[in-house]
Specification:
Blueprint (H helix, E strand, L loop, with lengths): L1 E4 L2 E3 L4 E8 L16 E5 L2 E2 L4 E3 L2 H15 L2 H15 L3 E5 L14 E2 L7 E3 L5 E3 H4 L3 H9 L4 E8 L1
Parallel strand pairs: 4-7, 5-8
Antiparallel strand pairs: 1-2, 3-11, 6-11, 9-10
Helix pairs in contact: 1-2, 1-4, 2-4
Length: about 160
């Protein structure tokens, strides 16, 4: 490493980090099963790190729920719950999303990276859409969560 300014270091290592969104308008193929009482529990996950993939319906639902909570977006939460109830048959949606250690000692279980919001995809007509655009439509929310092959993944490459 070379010290080029006080407390700033540079290496000859070269790496890039990217987060990409894969989204298509294919058929809905995945689902989430509610419990015997008709309750669907959405559990927080870790959406940070150098490499991750958000591909399964449970993870994608947790991401949308986390996004709604981070942004305090009640309308999104309502759209999201309507989609979940329609596509899973759930009667109620419950959440276990904890950003901080709870008073009862339960540790945080949800970690969020705002860079996810900047991911985008191009549709068949070459129009650009970001992740937040998907969340504006119940149809797109459903396709993102339940469409197989729709995902967000992050990775790092070194050269």
């Amino acid at each position: 490493m070379i010290n080029i300014r006080k407390s700033i270091f540079e290496t000859n290592s070269s790496s890039t980090h990217s987060i990409s969104l894969t989204f298509n308008d294919g058929e809905l193929m995945d689902t989430l099963p509610p419990d015997k009482n008709g309750e669907l529990l959405i559990v927080g996950e870790d959406f940070t790190g150098i490499e991750f993939e958000i591909a399964g319906a449970q993870s994608k639902a947790a991401l949308v729920a986390t996004y709604a909570q981070v942004h305090g977006d009640e309308k999104l939460r309502e759209r999201f719950e309507e989609v979940l109830k329609k596509h899973t048959g759930a009667q109620t949606i419950s959440y276990d999303i904890r950003f901080y250690k709870q008073l009862d000692g339960k540790p945080a279980n949800t970690f969020y990276c705002p860079d996810i919001e900047d991911t985008y995809y191009y549709d068949a007509d070459d129009n650009e859409f970001c992740f937040a655009d998907i969340l504006k439509s119940k149809k797109r929310i459903a396709k993102f969560i339940f469409g197989k092959g729709n995902m967000i993944e992050a990775g790092e490459t070194w050269s």
